[in-house]
User: What shape does this take?
Amino acid sequence: MKTAEHEIVRDFAARREQVYAAWTRPERFARWFGTRVFTTPADRVVPDVRLAGHLAVQATSSKVSARP
Assistant: This one.
């Protein structure tokens, strides 16, 4: 089974430490990740910042029903 790979490139008017924290601290990640329909509770964000680590995120919505 092949997993998806993504590369995100964007310039920010922020220090590296701030951008790193936005991706690695669940409470900060939850503030910006999501859409108008989906929210991301901080307790559902699990960053593993080790080499070859992963980011587990569970977004929730009260407007979209779960698929069976």
